[in-house]
Amino acid sequence: MQRTEHHASFGGRQEVWQHTSTTLGCDMKFGLYLPPAALAGEACPLLYWLSGLTCTEQNFITKAGAQQVAAELGLILIAPDTSPRGDNVPNDPAYDLGQGAGFYLNATQAPWAKNYRMEDYVVDELPTALAALLAQQGVKTTGRQGIFGHSMGGHGALTLALRHPGRYQSLSAFAPIVAPRLVPWGQKVFTAYLGDDPAAWAAHDAVSLIATAQDRLPILVDQGTDDEFLKQLQPELLQAECDQVGHPLTLRMQPGYDHSYYFIASFMGDHLRHHATALRG
Amino acid sequence: MQRTEHHASFGGRQEVWQHTSTTLGCDMKFGLYLPPAALAGEACPLLYWLSGLTCTEQNFITKAGAQQVAAELGLILIAPDTSPRGDNVPNDPAYDLGQGAGFYLNATQAPWAKNYRMEDYVVDELPTALAALLAQQGVKTTGRQGIFGHSMGGHGALTLALRHPGRYQSLSAFAPIVAPRLVPWGQKVFTAYLGDDPAAWAAHDAVSLIATAQDRLPILVDQGTDDEFLKQLQPELLQAECDQVGHPLTLRMQPGYDHSYYFIASFMGDHLRHHATALRG
């Protein structure tokens, strides 16, 4: 575990760490924001951010403007990369398949199955490595954690929380892909990573998972009405399914907002407060 | 004048515009943030941001986190590029000379003199073009404006405000180059752009200009103590000169902060409030 960046930020510290992932078979980087409370020895909850297509660990930490409110609320932020990386990892020239497009699942098909295990990485390996790192640095945690993300990362946050009940105590998303099995982005990568088994697709599709969710974790979703990818996102499908089964969802359609980090930054404070309320409650 | 980007942001709008600069002999882009008050027809003051070496108009608008507080305070933010650009504009392979390193002055030496006229661009041509654009869009301004910047852009803000008394009603800087004539960055570009005349150098050196400043505009400067470029910045020279002549300066040494946008973002709110107090009075 090697620290490749560290910057004072709002009284806390924004760091980037690199480690070798045995799950993914490559070196991985992640962003780690330690709020002032964590540096002062106070136990803080963890909040995982999952980024969208083409992103690395850098997009969130440089553009989302999350550090100020995380500093105020005492939240530790973790921002992993979006896929395995490197010359020895299979890739595809398209932006929406392969490196930068891990979709937070474990691939079962060649050539992806060996490295593309982002679900195991985010849910198991990274938290274990992080716990060891934080303990070594004397940073205390409360044992509670939340998850959120954007677009492909919103899909990741929703599906990982729904597939691993009890693992996360708070959940939200910006412009998530809520029904990947029904839209081009999802159909393309699910075919590549999971083959053509409809059950495998449904197991990684938030709208399909809602009905059988074992806990009713309240979900906050923000969606811009001028989002250029609205046809790939279709938040109304999530709303309809949540209404159907009584899953608590607050879906906010934000007039005029697009798919960019300008949209994310504008509502970041609301999301961090949503998580802090559930995690610190 | 062509709009190349527009994004809803904190209830306002972050835009990027491109226009042909006759002063610089090339096409130029600049960022423009319109706060909600400006969109609602209320007259707002203008605040110019000048970026540092290697930056374009993008760095400030994506990384500084300024939009939230600008929205609250009703400030219009303008972020120009840092030099003339393009294949027909002289350049140098080094990061600290030529494109990306305009230093906010009018060059007098070949091959730079034809295009490198960033002082005239920032002080005259851009404000005139902007006034026409805002009028055309029905955006009202108060007639008052401030200027601030980072590193080379901090030098730009200080020297342009000191060289053009009455033009700006508020002034601040993050980690500015306060005495370019005395440090390697400045000595290199001043030799290239201005030749070897000591008087020409002093005319673009903030510490040299303070003594004869025609108005005593209060200056706020933040400087990180862990800034990797501290030897090129030397804020203590500005402090000594301001003490000597009674120029109001608030120099804050920020423990542990470096030269990055994480530092800038951490104190952006304070700077915007400094400007709003002076501009909205």
Automatic annotation (TrEMBL), chains A, B:
GO terms for molecular function: carboxylic ester hydrolase activity; S-formylglutathione hydrolase activity. InterPro entries: AB_hydrolase_fold (IPR029058), Esterase-like (IPR000801), S-formylglutathione_hydrol (IPR014186). Its EC number is 3.1.2.12. It comes from the Bacteria. It is an enzyme of class 3 (hydrolase). Serine hydrolase involved in the detoxification of formaldehyde. This is S-formylglutathione hydrolase. It comes from Ottowia oryzae. The lineage of its organism: Bacteria, Pseudomonadati, Pseudomonadota, Betaproteobacteria, Burkholderiales.
